[in-house]
Amino acid sequence: MRYQYGLTLVELMVTLVVLSIVIGVAIPSFQTMVANNRIASQLNSLSGTIAFARSSASTRPGASVTLCASANGATCSGSALWENGWIVFRDVDGDATVDAGDDEVLRVNSELSGGNTLRVRGFGGVNSSVRFDAEGMPRLPAGAPAAGTFIVCDERGVSNAEALVVSGAGQVRVVRDGLDHAGAAIACP
């Protein structure tokens, strides 16, 4: 007598139902994990850029280093929409404008992925640029210390927003579900 090995139709159907339930539970968790990791990665990139700008300012005497929103990677856009990209440049005259011949673009960051937004609060109300002096501290055009917050949001809104708070001394800290540099609640556009 020959034995037949395999699955019956009932066994196959039960296996497919169990598999579909497991996949139905796992996919939303995986999507949340991907979105959380995207925000964390973008904050890490921004934090690295701030650290680079601060260190560049302290190693380039006679000029400040400016971090500004830039859509083309060569000039400051003057926009508050930082998610389109940003640049770090040596700003000899401290005017937050890349001047041909004098200023030098040091680093270019491309736009954020996933439709995330990046907004800046503080720094004296100048939300399109942040200037660092030779001591690596954020400064206003008049020279006074400036603090501010960079806020990254995705389509899930403020409940999942994360931020980098830069103190007047240039120290950076990550904020989740908290307050910005001035004690106001973090908000998304």
Query: Could you please say which CATH topology of the domain at 9-61 and 113-176 applies here?
Result: minor pseudopilin epsh fold
Q: In DSSP terms, counting alpha (H) and pi (I) runs of 4 or more, how many helices?
A: 1
Order of helices and strands: HEEEEEEEEE
Q: Specify the overall morphology.
A: elongated
Distance between the termini: 73 Å
Number of strands: 9
- Gyration radius, in Å: 24 Å
List keywords for this structure.
5-stranded antiparallel beta sheet; alpha+beta; 1 helix; 4-stranded antiparallel beta sheet; 27% helix; 189 residues; minor pseudopilin epsh fold
In summary, what is this structure?
By secondary structure, the protein is an alpha+beta fold. The chain contains 1 helix and 9 strands, in the order αβββββββββ. It starts with 8 loop residues before the first helix and ends in a 13-residue tail after the last strand.
